[in-house]
């Protein structure tokens, strides 16, 4: 069990959750906001009106310059969606939201959140099995993804909730929480 299950647990508690991977998926879908600008930089990646990740991967996997160009298009679009999501939660008088951001530290976004929870497959074999089970995943793509992510053993000092991802739902429904470290949400003050 991984982050999608934990996201579901938060949703079950009535807490709005935004999954950055889903936001990107929507941006890449037909009529998604990223389709035209990405096609302009990486010709041939649009198939049936949406971005084909396999075609896009030919440009960006293993090519840091092209990855940065892609991120220069996609990250601002994701950030705009995140701002809308937070504003909608604020308008709905929600005091807490969950932002599921796989590259939180790698993109420097940890400074924009009030608390951090980590759900990670600490066993790299488990992580690899999960990722390799995705449609279209190859060993090369897996290694490229892994090289862009921090090791699971990042310093957990700023982390308020840490849950190793495992096969047991029971162990995840009772997370280790250090509530004394949770700050007041910045919009609640």
UniProtKB/TrEMBL annotation:
Residues 165-175 have a biased composition (Polar residues). Residues 165-189 are annotated as: Disordered. Coiled coil: none annotated. PROSITE patterns: DPCK. The keyword Aminoacyl-tRNA synthetase does not apply. The keyword Transit peptide does not apply. Signal peptide: none annotated. One of its GO terms (molecular function) is dephospho-CoA kinase activity. InterPro entries: Depp_CoAkinase (IPR001977), P-loop_NTPase (IPR027417). Keywords: ATP-binding, Nucleotide-binding. GO terms for biological process: coenzyme A biosynthetic process. PANTHER family: BIFUNCTIONAL COENZYME A SYNTHASE-RELATED, DEPHOSPHO-COA KINASE-RELATED. HAMAP family: Dephospho_CoA_kinase (MF_00376). This is Dephospho-CoA kinase.
